[in-house]
Amino acid sequence: MAPPENIAVIGAGSWGTALAKLLGDKGFAVDLWAHRLDHVAALLRDRENATYLPGFPLPATVRPTADLAQAVSGKPVVVMVVPSHVYREVFALLAPHLAPNAAIISATKGVENETLLTMNQVMAEVLASLRPDFTGQLGVLAGPSFAKEVAAGIPTAVTVAAPTIEGARFFQDIFHTERFRVYASTDVIGMELGGALKNIVAIAAGICDGLGYGTNTRAALITRGLAEITRLGVAMGAKPLTFSGLAGMGDLVLTCTGDLSRNRQVGLKLGHGKTLAQILAEMKMVAEGIKTTRSAMALAQKKGVEMPILEQVYAMIYEDKPCGEAVQSLLGRDQKEEIEEV
Question: I need a labelling partner for 20 at 20 to 30 A (CA). Which of 1, 75, 145, 271 fits?
């Protein structure tokens, strides 16, 4: 497949803006779609995303727009970076305007609450309904990558996946730069689940930090959290080794330890005694782990997978269980053999 000249990035939050900047700096003509007219006007006026990614000028190759049809029409590559809870709605609106052979890659980390589908599965379902003529490919981008650091050109490594290695290498070539190293994979479901489920563990890590626990606790939580993610992933058809890679352990460590992690910040505030309603009222950006916790609980129950950390995060978020009690519930579980649990 020939390299594209024009790319659409759908979603102008911090991550969408960082990817648009990366692609624009690489020389692609990028249409960056935002859903609010006032946001687009500010992007055009200031040439930076002062709301979600301040301090990083957009290259001249990035063209902000609120016209979804214009953004995707004729584009050989579309990058989807809208929150999971509006993903289906936005994708259904743009699907009629897609080129029949477009390559579409999701950079959104979440699982749809109502259907328990990943973002690639949502796209496949919408395309089957609205665009039976579609012959293009779908993919996913995941891995440890804070938007601010990518925009600043700090060395970063991620992974892209598609059903075929040729498709993955196509996406790999698009995103790879001297400071943004991209690996290729064919484990689409594993990559999506690793990227989505790590946000739940990050909330738990933030809670433990907020309660004043130390690095021993955090290390244990990350390790056992990875075991839970792997169990559910394998039950859903993912490759176990995916979760020891960038989209698994890499993204998990970053999100559980980094101060830029929105999900960890949610946990910190919960650990400090704030309610979820108070936390959400203070946030400008989406913490995907809040909604993904509900989806993951339903998936774990459906697949019969034991996920005690997930269960306690769900209880704290949706059942108002005190954080200290949740920790005691985890520590009071029956003794287990470590490796056999995985």
Answer: 1
Give the SS3 label for residue 75.
coil
- The continuous run of DSSP H or E covering 187 comes out as none
* Superfamily of structural domain 6-186: NAD(P)-binding Rossmann-like Domain (3.40.50.720)
Give the 3-state secondary structure of residue 86.
helix
CATH no. of 192-341: 1.10.1040.10
Over residues 273-287, the pLDDT tens digits come to: 999 889 988 887 778
Instruction: Kindly list the catalytic residues.
Output: 198
**Contacting residues for 231 by C-beta, under 8 A, at least 6 apart:** 305, 306, 307, 341, 342
The predicted-structure confidence for 305-342, as pLDDT tens digits, reads as follows 999 999 999 999 999 999 999 999 998 888 888 875 54
Going by C-alpha positions, the residue among 201, 182, 225 that lies closest to residue 109 is: 201
Tallying the residues shown for the chain, one arrives at 342
